[in-house]
Recover the amino acids of this structure.
């Protein structure tokens, strides 16, 4: 019987490797195949990172956060403060915004970038531990609202904090060197974050840790009774997610150059809800779902946005409602139900 | 920091300022309580957590503002907003809410969040993003040598809110539909067995909620300002109030609503007007944490 399974499994394994190779080649070639869309392609990888990170708690553990954008905004600010602090006094720099000339050497820029991305990730991971310690006592809708509250409150507080520029926001130096090279660099930074997170999750979901995450989602009380320390798993998972979202926010900060608190950094109704829609569209609680959803959503958004003439936000709201109400299983859920053989699952007569 | 200490010492030096803040807060809080009562109603009866609550309020305000621009007296605008938002609530129920009632709670939360985004954007496209208000030609009453000013328009707003609340409570207690709503809230299946058309009850409850919110918005536009994107903060306030008071606790909702109004005014006075939104949200977190600690003591979680 094991022999039969092996012979049936081989072509799927071979096809899977071929698929991965094609995707990696596409990922490497994309910014050179479509040189006019480098910024959009980078944004696509950003969506993939935040969607995968959201699915860790939302899909795999059943804790639907509406406040993951908190880590994105915090990552942006941490990266900016680190970069500026390496060369200047932060308060002086922000209060002179637009007035004084602040030059950065190449070394300062790249050191700031490297330290900023790592620092933002670590800082956000620690934030996730602290916030999670309180909010993970909340269940279901209370968790969603509580985390949404954290994100909104952070945006409001930062916009009143003059040291980091207040409501005016903060500016970072421009990428030193060729503009197009800069775009390629940012593309590969986002892509590296996305692939690192994907590979990590692909491994993580097969381990005991992954099984514990799903146990929390399926029945937390029983998991607790079985001896799982559920809070530890929730905190660990959320801080990994926060690390990647924070690092992605840091990369965005360097890519955008100037950003402000309410619309760009703590953008609760844009990115904060986009990531949830991506995951729902692709399929909650699956490895590929967030990736597929992010691609579909981003392509839909970029293609239709310009033709909707101001109605794009209404269309977005409608897309959320329609996805949630009519298509909650997502693309992956739909495919698993209709084409189980694609996933190596054999049902019915064939399996006997 | 110095500014905050200065504001605090000002409060201690002139106690009458406290009174002014409290009066202002209670007047605003009565409107928060109205919207929160609608949320508690929908939450209790059909277990839907409506994040579009605040946008119903703002939409009602725009209905009244637009009609006032055409020459309708603002007081009739409250009735008009009630009627229009009733219809909007019914349409929303039939299109979306009826399909999320039986689902898990995150579904209803996310669906109504999508609705909230849609409504805010539609209002923005129709009326622009400026703040709007209706100026009423009434006098202002002064107390304590002019330290406390109470515009008659605001008093009128509070009175209208109280009347509306009394009307709804009376309706829930005395009418057949009110009884059916309360029966459905207690046990929907038993209500169905006894011949209550729960689908109709749900539709009615949701429309009533939207109408109450709309009327509250029509009062707010007379005493305060509205803007298409202010909705989310009213939704958050409603959640704070309902979470603090609990479901089916009407005196609690009123007390929490008035309390939130007063605390928010204090926050705005002490930290500066820029922090008003932040204070509203931080109150939410505070209430959640307090409730959480209470539940932990009984080894339960807030759900």
């Amino acid at each position: 019987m094991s022999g039969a399974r092996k012979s049936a499994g081989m072509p799927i394994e071979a096809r899977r490797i071929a698929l991965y190779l094609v995707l990696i080649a596409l990922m490497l070639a994309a910014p050179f195949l479509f040189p006019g869309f480098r910024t959009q392609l980078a944004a696509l990888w950003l969506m993939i990172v935040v969607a995968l990170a959201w699915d860790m708690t939302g899909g795999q553990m059943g804790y639907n956060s509406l406040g993951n954008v908190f880590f994105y905004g915090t990552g942006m600010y941490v990266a900016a403060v680190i970069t500026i602090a390496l060369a200047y006094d932060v308060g002086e720099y922000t209060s002179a915004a637009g007035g004084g000339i602040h030059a950065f050497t190449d070394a300062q820029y790249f050191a700031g970038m490297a330290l900023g991305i790592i620092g933002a990730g670590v800082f956000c991971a620690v934030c996730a531990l602290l916030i999670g310690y309180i909010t993970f006592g909340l269940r279901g809708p209370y968790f969603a609202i509580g985390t949404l509250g954290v994100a909104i409150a952070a945006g409001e507080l930062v916009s009143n904090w003059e040291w980091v520029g207040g409501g005016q926001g903060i500016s970072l130096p421009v990428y030193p060197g060729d503009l197009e090279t800069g775009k390629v660099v940012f593309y590969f930074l986002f892509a590296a974050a996305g692939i690192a997170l994907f590979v990590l999750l692909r491994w993580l979901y097969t381990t005991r840790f992954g099984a514990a995450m799903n146990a929390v989602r399926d029945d937390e009380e029983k998991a607790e009774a079985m001896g799982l320390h559920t809070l530890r798993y929730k905190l660990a998972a959320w801080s990994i997610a926060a690390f990647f979202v924070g690092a992605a926010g840091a990369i965005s900060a360097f890519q955008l150059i100037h950003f402000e608190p309410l619309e760009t950094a703590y953008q609760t109704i844009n990115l904060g809800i986009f990531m949830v829609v991506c995951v729902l569209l692709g399929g909650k609680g699956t490895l590929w779902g967030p990736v597929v959803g992010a691609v579909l959503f981003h392509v839909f958004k970029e293609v239709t946005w310009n033709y909707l003439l101001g109605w794009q936000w209404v269309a977005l709201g409608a897309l959320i409602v329609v996805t949630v109400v009519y298509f909650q299983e997502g693309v992956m859920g739909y495919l698993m139900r209709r084409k189980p053989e694609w996933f190596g699952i054999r049902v019915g007569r064939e399996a006997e | 920091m110095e500014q905050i200490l200065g504001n605090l010492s000002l409060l201690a030096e002139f106690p009458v300022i406290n009174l002014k803040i409290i009066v202002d807060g209670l007047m605003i809080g009565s409107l928060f309580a109205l919207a929160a009562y609608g949320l508690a109603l929908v939450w209790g009866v059909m277990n839907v957590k409506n994040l579009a609550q605040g946008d119903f309020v703002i939409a009602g305000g725009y209905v009244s503002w637009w009609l006032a621009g055409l020459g309708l007296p603002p007081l009739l605008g409250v009735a008009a907003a009630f009627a229009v938002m009733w219809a909007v609530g019914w349409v929303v129920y039939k299109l979306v809410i009826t399909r999320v009632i039986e689902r898990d709670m995150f579904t209803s939360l996310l669906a109504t969040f999508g609705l909230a985004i849609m409504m805010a954007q539609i209002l923005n496209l129709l009326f622009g993003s400026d703040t709007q208000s209706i100026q009423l030609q009434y006098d202002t009453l002064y107390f304590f040598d002019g330290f406390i000013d109470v515009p008659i328009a605001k008093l009128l707003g509070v009175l209208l809110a109280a009347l509306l609340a009394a009307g709804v409570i009376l309706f829930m207690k005395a009418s057949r539909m009110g009884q059916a709503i309360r029966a459905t809230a207690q046990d929907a299946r038993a209500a169905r067995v006894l011949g209550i058309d729960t689908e109709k009850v749900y539709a009615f409850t949701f429309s009533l909620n939207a109408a109450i919110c709309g009327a509250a918005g029509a009062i707010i536009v007379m005493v305060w300002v509205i803007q298409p994107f202010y909705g989310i903060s009213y939704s958050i306030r409603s959640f704070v109030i309902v979470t603090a008071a609990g479901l089916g606790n009407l005196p609690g909702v009123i007390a929490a609503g008035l309390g939130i109004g007063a605390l928010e005014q204090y926050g705005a006075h002490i930290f500066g007007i820029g922090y008003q939104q932040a204070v509203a949200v931080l109150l939410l977190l505070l209430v959640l944490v307090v409730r959480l600690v209470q539940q932990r003591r009984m080894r339960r979680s807030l759900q």
The interface with chain A takes residues 49, 96, 99-100, 103-107, 109-111, 113-119, 121-122, 125, 232, 236, 239, 243, 272, 274-275, 277-278, 281-282, 284-285, 288-289, 292, 295-296, 301-303 of chain B (CB under 8 Å).
